[in-house]
Design a protein that fits this description.
CATH superfamily: Spore Coat Polysaccharide Biosynthesis Protein SpsA, Chain A
Strand content: 15-25%
Radius of gyration: 17 Å
CATH architecture: Alpha-Beta Complex
Number of domains: 1
Strand order of the largest sheet: 5-4-1-6-8-7-9
Helix content: 25-40%
Order of helices and strands: EEEHEHEHEHEEHHHEHHH
Number of helices: 10
CATH topology: Spore Coat Polysaccharide Biosynthesis Protein SpsA, Chain A
Length: about 240
């Protein structure tokens, strides 16, 4: 059974264009996401799924130079892009990650991937009943679940947001939520706007150029509320 992380990444983000290549402690954001996925040590392959739009030629160039597997598909039909990418690498289990989450915790990724059992679940994540900070998002689903979703999702938002159809139809899928005792859902560790980028850079500046996780970040923020306040006015959606 082949487990593949598919990291969606494109240059044309509406709120912060080109964010995936913003520098974070000497490396592009996308590199930070990849290295954290690799550190989870649960994937047979990691694929960067970008679009065929000319603006994403730079993503292909980056992947080729860094030796990362990549796939190019539809710009706006991200669900189709995922389905085609998964088929191209013969994935049995797909793990959805996004290129704007440079604080992904390998331990959290590993926990969610290990929780997924195809005979019990169709979809496992920490994003529906959220107790983890936004930015540690990890979603796991089977190839059959992705195929079914791709064949049946019709609404534009269901095509743009890969798992929205699954969330909307719990009667069709065996869904399992991974939660933690402490509710940290109000924390915002993803990058959508300049304030988010400044926050992430401050965390890396404080904790160093290495793989650190949720608990170390929380300890830092308790000591340094000034860092927490950088993007405190940006609300999770």
């Amino acid at each position: 059974m082949k487990t593949v992380a598919i990291i969606q990444a494109r240059m044309s983000s509406s709120r912060l264009p080109g964010k995936i290549f913003q520098d974070i402690a000497g490396k592009p954001m996308l590199s930070r996401v990849v290295e954290r996925a690799e550190a989870a040590d649960v994937f047979d392959e990691i694929v960067i799924a970008t679009s065929v739009d000319p603006s994403d030629d730079v993503v292909e160039t980056f992947c080729s130079s860094e030796g990362h597997t990549f796939f190019r598909g539809s710009l706006n039909d991200v669900l189709e892009r995922y389905a085609q990418a998964a088929a191209a690498v013969h994935a049995d289990v797909i793990v959805r990650l996004t290129g704007d989450c440079p604080l992904l915790d390998p331990i959290v990724i590993r926990t969610i991937v290990k929780t997924f059992e195809p005979e019990k679940y169709d979809y496992v994540s920490n994003v529906i009943r959220r107790t983890y900070p936004k930015g540690l998002d990890t979603e796991v689903f089977s190839r059959n679940t992705l195929i079914m979703t791709h064949e049946n999702a019709r609404l534009p938002e269901e095509r743009e947001h890969v798992t929205k159809y699954i969330h909307a139809h719990p009667e069709l899928f065996r869904i399992h939520d991974v939660t933690q005792e402490r509710d940290l859902s109000l924390f915002r560790w993803t990058v959508d706007v300049p304030e988010d980028l400044a926050f992430v850079r401050a965390v890396y500046d404080a904790l160093g150029n290495r793989i650190f996780g949720q608990e170390e970040i929380l300890t830092l923020l308790e000591k340094r509320p000034d860092i927490q306040n950088i993007n405190a006015d940006i609300h999770n959606s």
